[in-house]
Amino acid sequence: MPNHKPYATGNPKIDKLIDELAKDFSTPQTRSYIHDLFTTVIKLHQDKADEHDLYLINNTLKELRHIFRTFAPYREIKKVALFGSHRSPAEDKEYLLAEEFSRLIAAQGFMVITGGGGGVMEAANKGAGKSGFAVKIKLPLEQKVNPYVIPGEKLINVKYFYTRKLAFIKESDATVLFPGGFGTHDEGFEVLTLAQTGKATPRPIVMVEAPGRKYWKNWLRFIEEGLVKGKFIRPVDRSLFKIVSSAKAAAQEVIDFYRLYHSIRYGRETTIIRLQKPLSEKYLAKLSKKYADIIAGQINPSGPLPVEVREKDHLHLPRICFCFDRHGFARLAQLIRDLNQA
């Protein structure tokens, strides 16, 4: 193993102070991270970071801390990030669909995260009730938060789109998109990119449009004719998302994705999938054969990884393990859907 250079300021006196601070303000599990955070702050000074850079880093860290602190009590509850136009009026079909979807999914124990604005976001918070969050962006032309967000407890105001987008991905387990403008497409393509590249864990991505409307169907035509036929994405990437035309179908897509599948953990060489119940070795052998293009060897029942034991990470759940190529993430999503059919 190569010897890694310690992350330090290079000033023995300062490094000693940082060591003492890290020891006093951390647990054994978090000490190295706290140490490196303190070190980075001093290095910014050593680098002569200008006031604008420090302003950006300072606000970013504050916003992320606030986001993490707000969501921390609800980490064990699965959540849906929901996007759509803030311009949709209350009588619009998509508004009514978003309200119905959020009511249905909240009744199944999920929580809902929106951008906190009007239109589709308002409808989602209305439907979700106390199970709704809002991560609101501060804009020059200030838009009021919708009246269905619980102030203080589940409302987060942020300055930067990138911290907001991080919250939508990190704190959610599914993404549902209703018709919208640039922002909706920004969020949609971001989550598709993260799913395609494995930078986000597998999740259902659902596009919803009212019956008879062609918003997402027109979008899909661009995807198939422009991206798939142009060989900018692979045909299998089409399976990363689903287009539906009812709130019930959208809710069912999210619920079905987690019917048997619980979560995933990537080890250095082994991928672990946690399940709601064990699967037969016969069914695992069938899946191993079907997904041999992304898996080396067999899918087997497994215990937790050492890091899972150390972190006490859902140790009660049954698991399967396999050697995943870490490239075929659209195929991995298909595998998860097949798991849920067992």
Write the layout of secondary structure elements.
Elements: H1 12-24, H2 31-46, H3 51-71, E1 79-83, H4 93-107, E2 111-114, H5 120-128, E3 132-137, E4 155-158, H6 161-170, E5 174-177, H7 182-197, E6 205-208, H8 215-228, E7 242-244, H9 247-257, E8 261-266, E9 271-275, H10 281-290, E10 295-302, H11 306-311, E11 319-324, H12 329-339
Parallel strand pairs: 1-2, 1-5, 2-3, 3-4, 5-6, 6-7
Antiparallel strand pairs: 8-9, 9-11, 10-11
Helix pairs in contact: 1-2, 4-5, 4-9
InterPro entries: LOG, LOG_fam, LOG_family_nucleotidases
GO molecular function, one term: hydrolase activity
Organism: Candidatus Saganbacteria bacterium CG08_land_8_20_14_0_20_45_16
Structure, described:
The protein has helices at residues 12-24, 31-46, 51-71, 93-107, 120-128, 161-170, 182-197, 215-228, 247-257, 281-290, 306-311, 329-339, and strands at 79-83, 111-114, 132-137, 155-158, 174-177, 205-208, 242-244, 261-266, 271-275, 295-302, 319-324. Helix 4 (93-107) links the parallel strand 1 and strand 2 (111-114). It starts with 11 loop residues before the first helix and ends with a helix. Strands 4-3-2-1-5-6-7 form a seven-stranded parallel sheet, sandwiched between helices. Strands 8-9-11-10 form a four-stranded antiparallel sheet. The longest helix is centred in the N-terminal third of the chain and has 21 residues, at 51-71. The chain is an alpha/beta fold and 342 residues long.
